[in-house]
């Protein structure tokens, strides 16, 4: 039987843990893969554990019991969080991002895996100690961010559609009023998409008054499910009275200044 | 200045490499972080390199020159690929997945991060030696898979919309005919979303005749960009003559059998 050095085992175990956030991996997976005693693997994991804590890179938790093992719980140092949020502020203040109607063009950011991976990690870290069964979003721009949060929390992603699709079976549709310009919109979700009694968090790219989030709360009621948290990349702090409380955001937007530049600041949430 | 053991450095460097697929990381990042000589870090990386090759977990490449460094290139062993594809086949053959209209319900699979991460890795590994500037998909079901492929290749994701959005500035829209039921559909992409001269791969959940892929080729022409590859999770091999050649898929679907069960097999692409 092949033997592996401690260094080799540590590299391979680290890779497996990092690739499977919030998933409990039984130690026997590693004892079999490396033909090593449980005590040896435990020592390897202790090294990884100490490294992550020391470097502020998240943590490794031990889960006791028959279905027990170890899992990687995502995390990021305050320094790295601040760095990403500051970089995002600089990017969002770029003058040529303002498009007709005084919107900020941010599609390139929402679809940039390097940025979205880190932003998703920051948002996920806010919910990592809650019981979360799934991450909900409304198509389209927030999907990569919501997917990253779901991946980091090791749970299912649920995407609410704006139309009905023949390929999704029976759907439940609700109408809701957008908080900012009072338009009536529809959102739909397949009956098969969400188990009754799920604890959900809602992730989106941008929040104004929170009409969409309110719609999500009502839609979740149709599935006997609860909203236990809201996370957005940017929130518009100028928008009229917020319809939902208790949310986290990375960045605050408060309109355009006299030079037609977006007024953008880091949120207080991760300060 | 703090000192770190080889074990600690290997755990931390592995994490950083795995979290940044296909991104060149300069060795100075690590020499500064660990207060270590370049030769020491090179030895650490050699251990990680050998581990990944030995365990069939992808590879670490050294990039020479001033902007050089090391990068993790994703990969998966044939055994793990076969395992995922076989599991997917079993799931897709479940009888209660057939919904009215003889569609297979597969939304839960497309939005399951554990499955999509591995499926994305398999598809990305097919394009990892090509020059790819971005990954293109059409909303909505294929977005998480396309995002994973983009993340693994370290490139931008581009999402083509079925409607125009006021928040995306000037858009280019084209009409295309679906290959299977000859309906006319529209797809739109913001002018800002794609640089001229980009090499793109198209990723989607399901391919029938390939009408959507043909539409993408025409849309890319409007941006003076090229399609250099197509990857889908499932392809319908019963569909009439394929409109596009040269694609990879994980799974082949050939209709329902006399028991109304989906006829599903692993594709030849990754066999």
Automatic annotation (TrEMBL), chains A, B:
Keywords: DNA-binding, Transcription, Transcription regulation
Coiled coil (residue ranges): none
Keyword NAD found: no
Domain Bacterial purine repressor N-terminal as annotated: residue spans: 6-74
CDD domains given in the database record: PRTases_typeI
Superkingdom of the organism of origin: Bacteria
Signal peptide: none
Domain called Phosphoribosyltransferase: residue spans: 112-243
NCBIfam families per UniProt: purR_Bsub
Quaternary organization: Homodimer.
Family statement: Belongs to the purine/pyrimidine phosphoribosyltransferase family. PurR subfamily.
Record protein name field: Pur operon repressor
């Amino acid at each position: 039987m092949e033997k592996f050095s401690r260094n080799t085992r540590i590299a391979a175990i680290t890779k497996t843990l990092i690739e499977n956030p919030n998933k409990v991996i039984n130690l026997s997976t590693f004892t079999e893969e490396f033909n090593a005693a449980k005590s040896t693997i435990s020592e390897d994991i202790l090294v990884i554990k100490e490294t992550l804590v020391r470097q502020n890179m998240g943590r490794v938790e031990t889960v006791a019991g028959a279905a027990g093992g170890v899992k990687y719980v995502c995390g990021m140092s305050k320094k790295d969080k601040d760095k990403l949020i500051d970089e995002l502020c600089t990017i969002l203040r770029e003058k040529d991002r303002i498009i007709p109607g005084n919107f900020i063009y941010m599609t390139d950011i929402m679809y940039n895996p390097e940025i979205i991976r880190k932003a998703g990690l920051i948002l996920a870290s806010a919910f990592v100690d809650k019981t979360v069964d799934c991450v909900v979003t409304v198509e389209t721009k927030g999907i990569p961010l919501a997917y990253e949060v779901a991946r980091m929390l090791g749970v299912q992603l649920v995407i609410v559609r704006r139309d009905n699709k023949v390929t999704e079976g029976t759907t439940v549709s609700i109408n809701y009023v957008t908080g900012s310009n009072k338009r009536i919109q529809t959102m739909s979700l397949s009956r098969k998409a969400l188990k009754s009694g799920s604890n959900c968090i809602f992730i989106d790219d941008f929040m104004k008054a929170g009409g969409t989030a309110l719609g999500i709360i009502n839609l979740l009621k149709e599935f006997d499910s609860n909203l236990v948290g809201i996370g957005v990349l940017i929130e518009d702090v100028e928008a009229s009275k917020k319809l939902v409380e208790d949310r986290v955001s990375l960045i605050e937007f408060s309109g355009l200044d006299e030079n037609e530049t977006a007024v953008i600041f880091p949120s207080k949430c991760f300060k």
